[in-house]
Amino acid sequence: MPDSTGERLAHQLYDADGQVTRDRPWIIRTYSGHSSPKASNELYRSNLAKGQTGLSIAFDLPTQCGYDSDDRIARPEVGKVGVPINSLDDMHVLFEGIPIEKMNTSMTINATAMWLLALYVALARERGVDESQLTGTTQNDLVKEYLARGTYIFPPEHSQRIIAEMYEYCLERIPKWNPSNICSYHLQEAAATPAQELAFALANAISLLDLLKERGHFDEQQFEQAVGRISFFVNSGIRFVEEMCKMRAFGELWDEYTRDRFGVKDEKYRRFRYGVQVNSLGLTESQPENNAWRILIEALGVTLSRDARARAIQLPAWNEALSLPRPWDQQWSLRLQQILAYETDLLEYPDLFEGSVVVRSKVDELKAQAREEIDKILGMGGVIPAIESGYMKTALVRSMSERMSRINSGEQIVVGLNKWTEGIESPLLGGEDGGIFTVDESAVHDAIASLERTRAQRDPERVERALEALKAAAREGTSMMEPSIECALARVTTGEWAGALREVFGEYRPATGVEGQKLALGGDRVDALRQRIAKLEERLGHRPRIVVGKPGLDGHSNGAEVIAVSARHVGFDVVYSGIRLSPEEIVQSAVEEDADVIGASVLSGSHLELAQQIFDKLAEYDATDRIDVVFGGIIPRGDFDKLAATGVKRVFTPADYELIDIMESIVELVEARAG
Amino acid sequence: MTTTERGAVHEALVERARTLDKGAVARLVSLFEDRRPAAVHERVRVLELLDRPAGDEGSADRACAVLGITGTPGSGKSSLVGALTQRMLEHREDLSIAVLAVDPSSHVSGGALLGDRTRMRFTPDERRLFFRSQASGTDLGGLGPSSFQVCRLLSRLFDCVIIETVGIGQSEADIRHLADRVYLVLQPLGGDEVQFLKAGIIEVPHVFVLNKSDEPSSETSYHQLRSSMWLARPFDEDAPPIYRTSTVTGDGLDGLEADMLAAVDRASPGALASREPYFLARWVEDEWGRVGTRFLEGELGGAAAFVEACGGYDRAQLELDRRLRAQLARDGDEGSAGG
């Protein structure tokens, strides 16, 4: 309220009528989904009942990569990191009792984003909801998939077309939908510096707008609106003052680029809108309870400053480095947001940092660094050439190795990891479940049963027609959105939709990155190992051979690539079989190549199932005695014995960071077998 | 293991390999890659078993086409081979194919990164298709030291052997000696056209494949290739075919597939035997260098005559090894006696 003299106080917020007010809180979300549509639906409804104000859906890897739950390659991953969605029938179950016309729904989905949006629209149509009321976001940013996350399907050019077509459809039909979300989150997870995160995200957005402009579908007014639909999804790390400045720099740079490069006149379309998931990279497996404080501090970075405050926030759970969170862990993170938004006075003030000389200077520095990098990328012809040439990947790999070496040397302190590592054991890890979440195994059966019901009940001719129409649109360059919605209504499955487009567009196989690795591997121990391998060649009649591959669908291939290159470096013949392999394919490679060792890398948590499948297949080929199996990846200590019981000879985790130790250990195995 | 036991193992392996059992074929391939002298005897035994008609099927007169696919890294050979084998197997239900993919070795460590499988997707457990990687042993690429040996085995088991090699230079000449038909894969505007012309490589292949025809520069490259062909091979009666292909769109694959299937149909039994002299000479050079080559030409009357006199490649290897060692020992004695 204005005081008696009518003057406003600088520390108070006023509404349009001049009344003192308080900001509305950001959208509070929890990134969740697991097991099955039914289990996830129960979780969403209970989260909404607890005061959550939006949905953030996690899909499982098969859904993200465009496979049905009963696909050979999909089975070990069904329901693991999110919910499996095979058809529109699953969507009905997932959203049962949830009014989608009132929901702000965020879907973390990329390569199959068009399909999930089509399913959501089809759901609205079957429920009689006007689709123009739908609100939400499909993440749909393939750049970070190619660079960091690995759940791409199609080559870049076709992926960009899909994104563009979704902008064109949404602007006309679902104006409140964000067709894509420029996502720099995973870049920071891959150790991008703040300037890199700014530059890569903005270069990505600029390249997308360049494409939309070039396609010429929009008139000037529509183009401005499309610019206004671009939203961002960013990361927030532990250096929270710098992160706050980064968010201010984001806002200013976006305003400047949209105005100067794209001539957007209306200020509201130039506004930088963003959601946040705070950093997971810095969350530790040791003393995991400390992560609760880290999450709180990271949340401050994106809420403290009103001018750079997030529109929507989701927080990880304290035990995310250990496993998927349990419902209680998620509730704990949800409560943090509620306390920050409703108990504190945070939302009562205008921007706290306006006029701060320190903040201004830091923001300017970040902006200058980012602009320099953006110019470089645009000079290469935009973000796609910068990916294809390996430029961006190389930059990230460098940042990651710098981070690792700072932590290893103790220059960068991580409490509980490289400093103050002794402590009282956390009681939070007690209890019957050991403080971690395990997926109900029946999830796979439920998903497959529902898929089979759908297949049995649908009209096969309508399915056939819908898929043909989709392929025709894909080939002819007309919009695939409406044909996808018809596919959804016809009960086409996720695997069929993606399969049809794979037929037309092909599947992207990026450079493996294997050749570009730089190894800190040399010296006497390497020479000694090479001599041992030469002796082995004499004894075996061939140079020792190792098949390195990633079974399953998680695309984080760096670890496997480092192992492949190291093994060649010490003298192995290495068959690198790449990512997204079924365990059967890996075993078949090893048998056909008459390999001595299989090295499998797994980060998705499916190592036990995958190991079992590998050994089943080896037995089928009668090759169990001929081939040793070693595993690497994010594997909890508690599972080592189980893997050993399956037959796995060695397990390597991020704790084994000395490559030469790993190589010696593998050579010992081959020597033992050679007798 | 006694000789009899080993013989029994081989007999069992050969029986399983005849059914194209992957594990058995793979182990026999390892035997044919084994460079230790003792392996020669085992190979002789396996070949005898394989060449002896088994049951109602006589494998001695099996006809097998050996097809060579070569080209620079990045031209898309592996994806092309992946797409073509899949189609050939689909269209011919009784056809079996073995793919031997050769990759360069590191000259520093001797190890190799064999990555071709990443570009191929196979139906699992499909016995009609066998894939094996091989290290070239040199960092230039080309055939490996045992590529010929492995072909001798695979050609007795499969209807078609496809050898995929990387590199330019010596390897193309080699592959022409090994393969019935050589396909050179080029990519648009790789600058390859000119390079191949210079190296005389354009004279090697029977067939040109301009891959990645979906790329915009493919049209220009096609015309450049046509005109350089006329310059490089003015005396060819028939201009070698040029196929323009894309594994992305599937364009041009029909024609190339038909070309390969026709080569399979033309294959005649025992064709590989005629190549034994060339590869014996190459083996001698690998193992013994110029001394060996001089000995083969001078003392033994040349590779062709020697192979014939010994009754085949393996016996020629054994015999040559024995005689050359004896000769060198004599030279050594004379040397020391004289000194």
| Largest contact between chains | A-B, 41 and 37 residues
Can you tell me the CATH class of the largest domain in chain A? Alpha Beta
| SSE string of chain B | HHHEHEEEHEHEHEHEHHHH
How many individual domains of chain A? 3
Instruction: Compute the number of structural domains of chain B.
Output: 3
Based on Cα principal axes, name the global outline of chain B: globular
Radius of gyration of chain B: 21 Å
Short description:
The complex is a heterodimer of chains A (675) and B (339). By secondary structure, chain A is α/β, with parallel strands linked by helices. Chain A is built from 25 helices and 17 strands.
Provide structural commentary.
The complex is a heterodimer of chains A (675) and B (339). Chain A has 675 residues and is α/β, with parallel strands linked by helices. Chain A folds into three domains: 13-429, Alpha-Beta Barrel (TIM Barrel), CATH 3.20.20.240; 452-505, no CATH class; 524-674, Cobalamin-binding domain (Rossmann fold, 3-Layer(aba) Sandwich). Helix content of chain A is 49%, strand content 10%. In chain A, the strands form four sheets. Chain A has a five-stranded parallel β-sheet with strand order 3-12-11-10-9. In chain A, strands 4-5-6-7-8 form a five-stranded parallel β-sheet. In chain A, strand 15 (597-602), helix 23 and strand 16 (628-633) form a beta-alpha-beta unit. In chain A, helix 10 (240-260) runs parallel beside helix 11 (291-301), helix 17 (460-476) packs antiparallel against helix 18 (481-489) and helix 22 (583-592) crosses helix 23 (607-620). The mean pLDDT of chain A is 89. Chain B has a seven-stranded parallel β-sheet with strand order 4-2-5-1-6-7-8, sandwiched between helices. In chain B, helix 2 (22-33) runs antiparallel to helix 5 (147-154), helix 4 (77-91) packs across helix 9 (253-266) and helix 10 (276-298) crosses helix 11. Chain B has 339 residues and is α/β, with parallel strands linked by helices. Chain B folds into three domains: 1-60; 65-266, P-loop containing nucleotide triphosphate hydrolases (Rossmann fold, 3-Layer(aba) Sandwich); 271-339, no CATH class. Chain B starts with a helix and ends with a helix. Chain B contains twelve helices and eight strands. The chains are: A alpha/beta (675), B alpha/beta (339). At the A-B interface, helix 20, helix 21, strand 14 and helix 22 of A face helix 2, strand 3 and strand 4 of B. Strand 14 of chain A pairs parallel with strand 3 of chain B.
